Amino acid sequence: MAGLLFGWYAASPAVRAGDASAGADVFKSECAECHAVKEGRNKKGPSLFGIVGRPSGSIADYSYSDALKQANWTWTADKLHWYLSQPAKTANPGTKMKYDGLTDAKQLDDLLSYLGNVH
Questions:
Q1: Count of CB atoms within 10 A of residue 113's CB?
Q2: What does 76-93 look like in DSSP terms, one character per residue?
Q3: 14-61: pLDDT as tens digits
């Protein structure tokens, strides 16, 4: 199953367009204050280790908002692109996440490429 998810993800246009190395820098500036990429390390937000392909609200030791627990999403590259390109409170009203969105398309593609490699 993991191989199928990786294969689908690798074929995604958003991933192919992104630079994972540049995405690591975007992560540091946009996400690292609240999220870690180390497995099992939650901060203000949940760990983003293995985020691509993971169901929303599914880390057992993190206290998600009811809005995210009830969203019933799978974090695909397309869903992450949609979610992160707008204010979190617009994408998921009732969320605890305080993020205004990433409007720079290249940075967003780079970030998604990076997150796709964090597993």
A1: 25
A2: -HHHHHHHHTS-HHHHST
A3: 444 799 999 999 999 999 999 999 999 999 999 999 999 999 999 999
Neighbours of 60 (CB within 10 A): 4
Phi then psi for residue 74, to 5 deg, are -115, 130
Residues 6+ apart with CB under 8 A from 63: none
Residue 26 contacts residue 111 (beta carbons within 8 Å): yes
- Whole-model pTM? 0.84
Contact partners, residue 53, CB within 8 Å, separation at least 6: 2, 5, 9, 74, 75, 76
Contacts of 76 (CB under 8 A, 6+ apart): 8, 9, 12, 52, 53
Residue 55: strand, helix, or coil: strand
